[in-house]
Structure formats: C-alpha cells, structure tokens
Amino acid sequence: MRDEFSFIKSITPTNRFQQQLTIGIGDDAAVYKTSAATEQVVCVDAMVEGIHFRRDTLSPFQIGRKALAINISDLAAMGANPMYYLVTIAVSESWSEHELQDIYAGMNELAELYKMDLIGGDTVSSKDQLVLSVTAIGNVREGHALKRSSAKPGDVLFVTGPIGKSAAGLELLQQKEKDNSFTDVERSCIRAHQEPEPQISSGTYLASLGKRIALNDVSDGLSSEAMELAEASNVQIVVDQEKLHPILPDLQDVDHSQKLHWLLNGGEDFQLIGTTSEETFAQLQKSGSITLFDIGFVRAGNASVIMKSANVETLLAKGGYNHFS
C-alpha cells in the first residue's frame, strides 16, 4: 500500500454536500456549524496494540488516558474547547475485565480535567489485538478555528514546548526494565511518553485572538508536522537548528544527533507547532500569556521543509510516524 498520507488524499471525496461543513478532511479535525456563534470540531484517532502501544511500556490506565489525549490534542490544534467523546473498543481474550476498566478510568481522568462527557461508542470482540478508537467533539467560535493552511512567507515558525521527549522516554523504557530506577530528567521523558498533556490552553488562547495563525499538533514528529503546514499553505518552512536547543530532550549522556532525531522523527509529544506574522509573534512574546519558542521562519517556495545550520541548508524528508511505511 502507498504511504498513509497519499492514501488519505486518494480517498478524499471531491464533492462536499453539507453547507454547514467548513473544514473537512485534510486538517487535524473537521469543523461544522451548529449555530450562528459557534462551530463544532470533530476528530477521531485509533490505537492498535502492538503498533501504537505495547503492554510492557504502558499500563492499561495510561493506554486509555493517552487514547483520549491524542484526540484532545487535535482539538487543541484547531483552537477548540473539548466537550464530548465516544469510544469504540475491540477486545481480545487476553485482556481482563479489570484491565478494561483501567483503560476507561484513564480516559475518565483526563475527561474530568477537561469537563468532557462520554456520550457513546461500541464494544466488540477482537481475535488478536486490542483496538481502541476515540472520537472527540469540541467547539470553537465561528470563524476562529485555526487551520494548517494559514502560513505565509515572512511568518515566524514556533512551537509551544519541548519536542522529542516522548520518543526519548519510549527508548528509555525499551532499554531498561519498566520499574528500574531513572533519573529525574529520564522520568520526565518517560512521563511525556506515557502521560502526554494536550496543549488545550495554548490552542484556545491562540484561537481567541482572531489573528492569522497556522497551527498543527506534533503527533508524528516535527519534520512531518512542519511538512503538513508547508503543503497546506504551499510555502517553504525553514527550521533553524541553532534555535532548537531549548526544546530538545535534556539528557546529558545522549549526543546531539540522537536528540535531533527524536525531535524530527519521534512524535507523540502533542505540543503545538505553528506560524504567525512577526508582529503577532512579538505581541504574544510581550504579553507573557503563552510560552512560544521561535524555531524558524516561512518563505516563498515549493512546499517543503528545510533545516538551516549556519549557512548550510538541507532539505528534510517527511519523517515521523507513518502507518503505511
């Protein structure tokens, strides 16, 4: 099968029938109007045992929590407030009822934090692996949903926090025993992998400004998410390697190239990556209402991502996690 992103593009219908639909396939979530004042934002993600998670690196509670966090992160990327979620779970005989209860308890913990209601779903049997599919629904003020397609030449490229910590945490778990002793920094990376925090407050704040801001969440690695912004906006995005140090995993015994690999290709950090004008970025920095890291800029050119180091520029492949690669 072709790669995941080309496959999705190939099955996207060319016609749109519902007038209320304002953003369809091609962004982090769909958006449709329900009233004159707000639009609904809908997204769905699935996790498959052995592909998206392993039972030796995540507890059932953490699996459930992460499944909902992934969807909440998509809402954050649109600037939406979480409201509801639905859960479909396919269960194999290797999972006990207690473990399944823990999965839902993990989702419930995060749902309580964001005041989300579980409003439905389905439970079926599976021959081998557990499959967990979550649909999340939120809302955003009409016309304020943040899209990937809003980047323009001259914009600042920014992220909301560290990138690569989740991939570092997974590698630490794979290298050592699950309950082995870790340093505080290592535990921070492991926590980023097992219990990621969606950036809802940042996303909703950016949406509330009514400014031109392109936004995406970092679920599949920075290079992949930057490329999605570049493709949606038909611009060239330049990542300045010299500006990446503050957002790299702070592991002293790991060389810089490995940290850079985690940042570009690791995924599952669920920070936000975006672009906005220099003027708006300066205003955001001055306000102190949100933490943003300047990591590059946008310029005219074919949709692509460039890594700039000193005076050397390197074209980045679309890395990160791809389900069909």
From TrEMBL:
<dbReference type="GO" id="GO:0005524">
    <property type="term" value="F:ATP binding"/>
</dbReference>
<keyword id="KW-0784">Thiamine biosynthesis</keyword>
<dbReference type="InterPro" id="IPR016188">
    <property type="entry name" value="PurM-like_N"/>
</dbReference>
<dbReference type="GO" id="GO:0009030">
    <property type="term" value="F:thiamine-phosphate kinase activity"/>
</dbReference>
<dbReference type="InterPro" id="IPR010918">
    <property type="entry name" value="PurM-like_C_dom"/>
</dbReference>
<feature type="domain" description="PurM-like C-terminal">
    <location>
        <begin position="152"/>
        <end position="250"/>
    </location>
</feature>
<feature type="binding site">
    <location>
        <position position="52"/>
    </location>
    <ligand>
        <name>substrate</name>
    </ligand>
</feature>
<feature type="binding site">
    <location>
        <position position="217"/>
    </location>
    <ligand>
        <name>Mg(2+) 3</name>
    </ligand>
</feature>
<keyword id="KW-0547">Nucleotide-binding</keyword>
<feature type="binding site">
    <location>
        <begin position="121"/>
        <end position="122"/>
    </location>
    <ligand>
        <name>ATP</name>
    </ligand>
</feature>
<feature type="binding site">
    <location>
        <position position="45"/>
    </location>
    <ligand>
        <name>Mg(2+) 1</name>
    </ligand>
</feature>
<feature type="binding site">
    <location>
        <position position="220"/>
    </location>
    <ligand>
        <name>Mg(2+) 5</name>
    </ligand>
</feature>
<keyword id="KW-0067">ATP-binding</keyword>
<feature type="binding site">
    <location>
        <position position="268"/>
    </location>
    <ligand>
        <name>substrate</name>
    </ligand>
</feature>
<comment type="function">
    <text>Catalyzes the ATP-dependent phosphorylation of thiamine-monophosphate (TMP) to form thiamine-pyrophosphate (TPP), the active form of vitamin B1.</text>
</comment>
<feature type="binding site">
    <location>
        <position position="148"/>
    </location>
    <ligand>
        <name>ATP</name>
    </ligand>
</feature>
<comment type="similarity">
    <text>Belongs to the thiamine-monophosphate kinase family.</text>
</comment>
<comment type="pathway">
    <text>Cofactor biosynthesis; thiamine diphosphate biosynthesis; thiamine diphosphate from thiamine phosphate: step 1/1.</text>
</comment>
<protein>
    <recommendedName>
        <fullName>Thiamine-monophosphate kinase</fullName>
        <ecNumber>2.7.4.16</ecNumber>
    </recommendedName>
</protein>
<dbReference type="Pfam" id="PF02769">
    <property type="entry name" value="AIRS_C"/>
</dbReference>
<keyword id="KW-0479">Metal-binding</keyword>
<dbReference type="InterPro" id="IPR036921">
    <property type="entry name" value="PurM-like_N_sf"/>
</dbReference>
<feature type="binding site">
    <location>
        <position position="28"/>
    </location>
    <ligand>
        <name>Mg(2+) 3</name>
    </ligand>
</feature>
<feature type="binding site">
    <location>
        <position position="45"/>
    </location>
    <ligand>
        <name>Mg(2+) 2</name>
    </ligand>
</feature>
<feature type="binding site">
    <location>
        <position position="122"/>
    </location>
    <ligand>
        <name>Mg(2+) 1</name>
    </ligand>
</feature>
<feature type="binding site">
    <location>
        <position position="74"/>
    </location>
    <ligand>
        <name>Mg(2+) 2</name>
    </ligand>
</feature>
<dbReference type="GO" id="GO:0009229">
    <property type="term" value="P:thiamine diphosphate biosynthetic process"/>
</dbReference>
<keyword id="KW-0418">Kinase</keyword>
<feature type="binding site">
    <location>
        <position position="321"/>
    </location>
    <ligand>
        <name>substrate</name>
    </ligand>
</feature>
<feature type="binding site">
    <location>
        <position position="74"/>
    </location>
    <ligand>
        <name>Mg(2+) 3</name>
    </ligand>
</feature>
<feature type="binding site">
    <location>
        <position position="74"/>
    </location>
    <ligand>
        <name>Mg(2+) 4</name>
    </ligand>
</feature>
<dbReference type="InterPro" id="IPR006283">
    <property type="entry name" value="ThiL-like"/>
</dbReference>
<dbReference type="GO" id="GO:0009228">
    <property type="term" value="P:thiamine biosynthetic process"/>
</dbReference>
<feature type="binding site">
    <location>
        <position position="28"/>
    </location>
    <ligand>
        <name>Mg(2+) 4</name>
    </ligand>
</feature>
<dbReference type="InterPro" id="IPR036676">
    <property type="entry name" value="PurM-like_C_sf"/>
</dbReference>
<feature type="domain" description="PurM-like N-terminal">
    <location>
        <begin position="26"/>
        <end position="140"/>
    </location>
</feature>
<keyword id="KW-0460">Magnesium</keyword>
<dbReference type="Pfam" id="PF00586">
    <property type="entry name" value="AIRS"/>
</dbReference>
<feature type="binding site">
    <location>
        <position position="219"/>
    </location>
    <ligand>
        <name>ATP</name>
    </ligand>
</feature>
<feature type="binding site">
    <location>
        <position position="104"/>
    </location>
    <ligand>
        <name>ATP</name>
    </ligand>
</feature>
<keyword id="KW-0808">Transferase</keyword>
<dbReference type="GO" id="GO:0000287">
    <property type="term" value="F:magnesium ion binding"/>
</dbReference>
